[in-house]
Design goal:
Length: 205
């Protein structure tokens, strides 16, 4: 499930990963909340909509755009609030959440980390075999996030496995070094006694 977070408009999408880089669109939509309503009410409405989507489609994983400073503090704060609601909904269902920056999504989908919205929409339309470009842009962005994760998931899994093996090897080496240090300390502690016994048993002249 890919989500382009926002309080005024929140893009939601669900795709099915196939073999290799094959991806199949399942659903896409945009949740809107009225700008003249209280923020708490708008967050509640967003929460209700997202919960309904997650219960209906039961995604295995959720990909959300990472919030970053865009100049408008109010917009950033509202988006951050929305992301919190989205992540909570996923956590309540034990669904893994992955965050991606816009440049990461653009790079994964189009090969260009600076691609504009028109280019991204064209790529998503072609990749998913859609009859027409998804609208509005929030819907296209949500699909792009979902595709980004599907294509990056194997790399992420490989990276996690590498980290796991590295940690396992590090623990093993620490154990070996610890045992070596312990044996060295025991030998050092035993040396005076051994020397004393050797001195007592050596022939006197």
């Amino acid at each position: 499930m890919g989500i382009d977070p926002g309080l005024t408009r929140c893009g939601l999408s669900v795709i099915q990963a196939g073999r290799g880089r094959a991806v199949i669109p399942v659903a896409v939509g945009v949740v809107r909340t009225p700008t003249d309503s209280d923020v708490a009410v708008r967050l509640f409405e967003l929460s209700e909509a997202v919960n309904e989507w997650m219960d209906s489609y039961q995604p295995d994983v959720v990909a959300i755009e990472r919030v970053f400073e865009r100049g408008n503090v109010s917009t950033v704060m509202n988006t951050a609030h929305a992301v919190g609601v989205l992540m909570l909904a996923a956590a309540q269902r034990n669904i893994d959440v992955h965050l991606y920056t816009p440049s990461e999504v653009k790079k994964a989908v189009s090969g260009n980390g600076r691609a504009d919205k028109k280019q991204m929409t064209a790529m998503i339309t072609r990749i998913l075999g859609l009859s027409e470009p998804p609208k509005p842009a929030d819907a296209a962005d949500a699909l792009a996030l979902a595709v980004c994760h599907c294509w990056r998931a194997p790399l992420l899994a490989k990276h996690r496995e590498t980290e796991r093996l590295t940690m396992k090897q590090a623990r093993h080496m620490n154990g070996v070094l610890g045992q070596a240090k312990q044996k060295a300390a025991q030998r050092a502690d035993g040396m005076p006694e051994e020397l004393a016994r050797a001195a007592n048993t050596s022939p006197k002249t």
